[in-house]
Model the fold of this input.
Amino acid sequence: MRFGLIYHHQLPRPWQQDSEERMFNEALDQIELADRLGLDYAWATEHHFLEEYSHSGAPEVFLGAAAARTRSIRLAHGIVQLPSAVNHPVRVAERLATLDLISGGRVDFGSGAGSSQLELAAFGVDRATKKDEWAESLEVVTRLLSEEPFAGHKGRFTEVPPRNLLPKPKQTPHPPLWLACSARTTIEDAARAGLGALSFSFVSPEEAKGWVDTYYDTLQSEQCLPIGRAVNPNFSVVLPFMCHQDEETALDRGLEGAHFFSYALMHYYISGEHKPGRTSVWEEFQKNRASVGLVREPVAPAGDDAEQSEDVKNMLEQITSLRRGIGTPEQITDMIRRYEAAGVDQIIFSVQIGKNRHEHIMESLELFGAEVLPEFAPHRDAVDEARRERLAPAVEAALARRKQHTEDVADYVIAPELRA
Done:
């Protein structure tokens, strides 16, 4: 089992003049500690305009700062939005290669199409075609990173002439690739494209097993047609996190942050109406949290359990899942064992969420490093190697099915444009 931290850079109102500066610096302190403790990944999301939920509009800058303060932890985009109106594939490839070099080859590249209307509309991205645009852009990025020279691309959404991308990444043919997943269908998409699955749904270990089995069955089938020049067989889950020797203290310190994360997600993606620069998501959360079950002990609407709708049951399961990574070292260890038994390869913890306090996060990480990590860390390299060996024939077959680009650009010449 591998472990990571993921940063949305949440910042509930009210804000002070130095709030964002302090938030970023505290996150960097946390990643520096995680690196010393031996955690494996630091993930950074990319979002735009999602006030309070995510102040993470330039993850490449944040990860560059993390690279300068760490030695071993992998620096992962989770995710870069790939519609070209948001991030042109050439610029994405250049930033990835540069970060990979300055970090000593520690970059992982997660991508996605974006989903919130507040973001998509701001960049003029068509919701009906965003998934196709993501796939085209990702193929261009991986080719730019690995071809010398890049033979050019004329597609439905992007056109890039033959060029030689500089710099090239340290990792060859390119950093490991991941896809943001929130449902079984996107997990299947990740497997078909040979990408690691970043599962952002708070699934139980039992539900995760079904998703893991689907992912690896698909990846080993003839449906797998890698979008990049390498396959990244990996399945991860994301959970809120807070660790303390006393369960009630852990809940006191971490549960409200997990509940705010869930409420803010619903606000921007499902049910909220937002006035830019005016709406206080934190105030609305405090006012409405009980009505959506985001309380210490969630309570279902009145009625016979047998008569409850599936929606109610699913809601209660999601709310219960928010506390799964919050507890004592013993409880968290048991939880990890269950995900490990389900076949999950990495657990990614959301720590800087809601108004979780920096000193509590640091204490939790120290405790996790002292009492939980030692059970799992010694085996991780052997587990990864066994997985690679087991999947090697399927990966080789999948790469053989991959579309080959054989364009001859040996005679392609760019002449200077003379000006009067």
Remarks:
- DSSP finds 14 helices and twelve strands in the chain.
- The mean pLDDT is 94.
